[in-house]
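To whoever is on call:

I kicked off a structure prediction for a single chain this morning and the downstream step that reads the tokens threw a length-mismatch warning. I double-checked the sequence; it's 185 residues and nothing unusual in it as far as I can see. Pasting both halves so you can look.
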Amino acid sequence: MSFDLEASLRRIKPQRKDVSITCRSNETLPWVGSPGPGAELLLDTCVYLDVLKGKTPSAVDDLLRMRIVNHSAIALGELTHLFGRLDPGHTDTRKTLRIISGVIDDIPAHRLTAPTARAYGEAGMLAGLVARLGGRPAGVDLLNDALLHLHARELGCELLTGNVSDFDLFDQVLTGSNLLFYRKS
């Protein structure tokens, strides 16, 4: 595995001294509209959870039926995290884990991919930059989101997410992303 630190530093520019960044107005963001053909999708973990909870708008449900859907090892890790995190003594844990197992089992092997070493290295820079300039809490969640953002860019997919606050900031720092946002219903 190789990683070209100098090339990534030139690309991300993590030491830039920009002033703070804030989320843009809703009117300027790419929202799921009337679904139709388009680029392949990569799903943020929140999509799986919102679909299971029935919290996605019908336009998102339609989009998921119409487009080719890809899955990231990052989302897989966040889903499997629940197997260790949920309290085995809680009455709903067994049922929840059975449902999550079904979701994972339904992921086609040929549609599940992992980011490259370059994406991992640059995700640390991107997450750190957004934490500093955007006032976001630094941590594993932000790092995973940055990695998912870069994974979608590597694949040339549109990233479908309900997480406007983090992914809008990533897009401002590293422009030209293919994002599709939705609001829970």
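Update from on-call: the warning came from a stale cache, not from the record. Cleared it. Sanity check on the structure: Residues 14 and 155 are 23 Å apart (CA to CA).
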